[in-house]
Amino acid sequence: MTSTKYIFISGGVTSSLGKGIVSASLAMLLQERGLSVTIQKLDPYINVDPGTLNPYEHGECYVTEDGAETDLDLGHYERFLGVPTSQANNVTTGRIYQSVINKERKGDYLGKTVQVIPHITDEIKRRIMLLGNNNQYDVVLTEIGGTVGDIESLPYIEAVRQLKFELGAGNSLVIHLTLVPYLSATGELKTKPTQHSVKVLLENGIQPDILVLRAEKSLSSDIRRKVALFCNVEIDAVIECLDASTIYEVPLLLQKEKLDEITIRKMNLNITRVPDLGPWTEIVDRLKNPECVVKIGLVGKYVELADSYKSIIESLSHAGATYRCKVQVTCIHSEEITEDNVKDILEEQHGIIVAPGFGDRGIDGKIFAARFAREQKVPFLGICLGMQCAVIEFARNVLGHKNAHSTEMDQKTPQPVIDLMEEQKGITEKGGTMRLGAYPCNIKEGTRVHKAYNKTFIRERHRHRYEFNNSYLQEFEDAGFIASGINPDNNLVEIMEMTGHPWFIGVQFHPEYSSTVMKPHPLFIQFVRAVLDHSVKQSDKKEDLVRK
Ligand code: GLN
Predict the structure, then answer these.
(1) Is the beta carbon of 424 within 6 A of some atom in ligand 1?
(2) Which residue in 14, 292, 304, 535 has its CB near the most CB atoms, within 10 A?
(3) What are phi and psi of 63, to 5 degrees?
(4) How many angstroms is it from 482 CA to the middle of ligand 1?
(5) Cβ atoms within 10 A of the Cβ of 518, count?
(6) Is residue 344's pLDDT more than 60?
(7) Catalytic residue among 384, 393, 401, 464
(8) Which of 72, 53, 42, 74 is nearest to 155 (CA)?
(9) What is the pLDDT of residues 198-234, one digit of tens each?
C-alpha cells in the first residue's frame, strides 16, 4: 500500500478560473514545507493528447522531457515547482478509452461487457494511483479538467468518489474551486453559483473538503459563514482567491489564507521544513514593481489566443524579473506582415521573436520579420520554425539562393535549406510522431550561447519534423551564420547564431518549456539583456533626434 496522499482539485461555475494556477500554487507551498509533490491533469476530451489540437482551440501544447505532448497546465506545474513532469502527469479521456479498448481487443475482459463503470473508472483510478505507486511522492495533486456538471467529466468525478472512499479518511482531499461573482448594480458578492456547483458535486457523491472561491472583491466573514453552512465545509476551509496582478502572486495570497496549513492539517501531512517564501516574494516584487519596460514583438500565426504562446510569454517575464524589467509582449500576426509594412510594424519593438509553428500560412511575414531583425540589428530569437525562417531568409538574401525554402512549405524547392529529418520519412500518422522531448546538444566554446549557458553540453526539448540541411552549413558559416549548438549523436544543427550582430539566435528546440520562476532560462535572460541594451540605444537615438 502506498503512503502517498492524494488531493483532487475540481472546478465549478465556469471554466478558466485558474485551477491550474491554484493547483500549482498549493503544490509549491507544500513543496516549501519539505514535501515531495507532483501534479497531474485529467483532461476530458477524446484526443489522445493535445498534440493534434490547434493552439487556438486549446492553447499551447506543452512538451515534457520524456517527449509527451501535454496540456499547457503542465507548464505551470513545472514553472512553479521547478521539477519535471512526464507522460503520466497528463491523462485524457482519449488515452483512457484507448487503453481500455486495446485491452478489450487483446481479450483481457473476455466474456464481460466493457462499461464506463467499472472499466473506464478503473482505468482512471489506475492512472491516478500510478504516480504514487513507488512512494516517490508524498502528495499527488490531480486536477480534473472541465467544470462539474459537464457530461464529459462525470467518469472522472465518479473515479474520485470511489478513490476517496477506498483511500480512507485523511489520505485524500477534495478541493473545489468556484467563482463568487460581484454584481456591481447591487454592490454584492453572490454565493448562489457556488452553492449550486457544490450541490452538483454532492449529487455525485462527493463532499468537498476545501472551497477556494475566486472573487474580485474580498469575502466578508458573513459570506464565508454562509458558504460554509450551505456547503457543509468548515469555515476556515472557505478560502478566498482574489484576482492577482501576476499569477506568481497567487501562492502568496493562498498562503495568507492558510490553504497550505489547512491541507496539512486535514491530511495529517508530515512536514519537515518551515517555508521560506523570501526568494519567491522577491521575484513577485520585481514583477509588480519594475524599473523599466522593454517591448518585444512576438511574430506568429496563432495570436488570436495569448495562451498559444504561454510558455514563451512566461519565460520572458521570468527573465525580465532578473533585471527588474517589465517585458511587454505584443503578439503580431505574421499574415499581416509584408515586405512594405514590416518596418512600420516592427520599428517600435526592442526585440523580435519568431514563434514556433506549422504549415505555410503566414510564413512570408515571419521571413520578413527575420530579415528586418538581421538588417536593423534588432535582437532576435527564432524558436523552432522561427529558427528555420531565419535560415531561409539568410539563404535567400545573403547567400543568394533566391528560391531557398523549407520542404515543409515547398516540397519542390531547388534549395531545401530546411528539410524533413531522415527519421521522419515514411511517417504518415500525425499523432505523437514528431521528434519529441529532450535531446543532447554540444555547444561550441566561445560563442554567445556558450556564454549564456556557461556549459558545453545541454539537453533541451524538441517538437519538430524538419531540420537544418547540413549540406549548406559550410556556406552559412563562411558568411557568418554559424552553428553554435549541434546534436552529438546525429549532427543535427540545434542552434544558429549570427556573428556581427548584437544578438541573433535561432534554436531548433524549445527553451521556453524549461524556464521556471526560480531558474529563468539562460537564453531568455541573455536575450532580454540584449533587448534592454537595444532599448537604451534606441531611446538615446530618439533623444538625439529631438535635440537636433
Ligand atoms: N514545422 C516545423 C517542423 O516541424 C517547426 C515546428 C515547430 O516550430 N515546433 O520542423
Answers:
(1) no
(2) 535
(3) -115, 130
(4) 20
(5) 13
(6) yes
(7) 384
(8) 42
(9) 999 999 999 999 999 999 999 999 999 999 999 999 9
Q: Is the CB of 466 under 6 A from ligand 1?
A: yes
Task: Report the residue among 411, 466, 493 best suited for mutation to probe ligand 1: largest number of ligand atoms under 8 A from its CB.
Answer: 466
pLDDT tier, 539 (very low <50, low <70, confident <90, very high otherwise):
confident
Identify whether 512 is a catalytic site residue.
yes
Average pLDDT, the chain: 95
Which residue pairs, CB below 8 angstroms and at least 24 apart, start in 111-118? 116/155, 117/155, 117/158
Closest-lying ligand 1 atom to the alpha carbon of residue 462: 9
CA atoms within 13 A on the CB side of 497: 20
Nearest to 381 by CA among 363, 356, 360: 356
Task: Name the 3-class secondary structure at 382.
Answer: strand
What distance in Å separates the CA atoms of residue 476 and residue 487, rounded to the nearest whole number? 18
Helices 363-375 + 385-397 axis angle, to 10: 70
The pLDDT assigned to 2 comes to 64
N residues, the chain: 548
Cβ atoms of 92 and 156 closer than 8 Å: no
Cell numbers given for 354: 519568431
Q: How far is the CA of 356 from the centre of ligand 1 (A)?
A: 6
Cα dist. 326→284, 291, 319, 517 in Å? 12, 8, 9, 15
What's the whole-model pTM score?
0.95
Measured distance CA(491)–CA(210) in Å, rounded: 53
